[in-house]
Design a protein that fits this description.
Oligomer: single chain
Number of domains: 2
Order of helices and strands: EHHHEHEHEHEH
CATH class of the largest domain: Alpha Beta
CATH architecture of the largest domain: 3-Layer(aba) Sandwich
Number of strands: 5
CATH topology of the largest domain: Ribosomal Protein L4, Chain: A
Radius of gyration: 27 Å
Largest sheet: 5 strands, mixed
Number of helices: 7
Distance between the termini: 30 Å
CATH superfamily of the largest domain: Ribosomal protein L4/L1
Structural class: alpha/beta
């Protein structure tokens, strides 16, 4: 892995020099996380709990309160009063421009904080792995479409690899450091500026 100085590259300001906007990032991450929820909680109501078919005691004459079932929510082992039953949908729509801008903001912020580096990957797998492991020891996101680079790095525990076509704000948030393959810069810029 050969690091590239930022000054040597012609970077698009619309992607790599966007002012920070915490509110936009929070909105986008909230939507990604909401869409990841399963919503599969399933609690038994009084009709779903087994038993309770027989009236516990007669209606009158015992001096006790009226009771029709031992599975009433008031009773121990009774069903839940307001049970969450079935699939609940948490999906929210995300505006494409918002998603793109959030990625640009996060890339710009990481570049400014020197947590983002540009590199080219060679063919020597051992040397490449050693170069990466010597420099990084915590969560690392490698943005590359290079299959050879993916093969050499994919079985390292803390490294996540993603193509420039699929990278989003959630991936950038979950990884402390980012390496962008030189070949992926143009693809990223075209995608994030909508080809303009």
């Amino acid at each position: 892995m050969e690091s590239i100085d930022v000054k040597e590259l012609k970077l698009n300001k619309e992607v790599w020099k966007v002012p920070y906007n915490a509110d936009l990032i929070a909105q986008v991450i909230y939507i990604y996380r909401a869409n990841a929820r399963k919503g599969s909680a399933n609690i038994k109501s009084r009709g779903d709990v087994s038993g309770g078919g027989k009236k516990p005691w007669k209606q009158k004459g015992t001096g006790r309160a009226r009771a029709g079932s031992t599975r009433s929510p008031l009773w121990v082992h009774g069903g839940a009063a307001f049970a969450t039953v079935g699939e609940r949908v948490f999906d929210r729509r995300l505006n494409k421009k918002m998603a793109r801008k959030a990625v640009c903001i996060m890339l710009s912020d990481r570049l400014k904080d020197e947590k983002l580096a540009f590199a080219t990957f060679g063919s020597d797998a051992k040397a490449e792995r050693k170069a990466v492991l010597d420099k990084y020891n915590k969560s690392l996101l490698v943005v590359t479409g290079n299959e050879e680079a993916e093969k050499m790095l994919r079985n390292i525990e803390f490294i996540n690899i993603i193509t420039p076509e699929k990278v989003n704000a959630k991936h950038l948030l979950e990884n402390r450091n980012i390496i962008v393959d030189k070949e992926s810069i143009n693809i990223l810029e075209t995608r994030l500026t909508n080809g303009k």
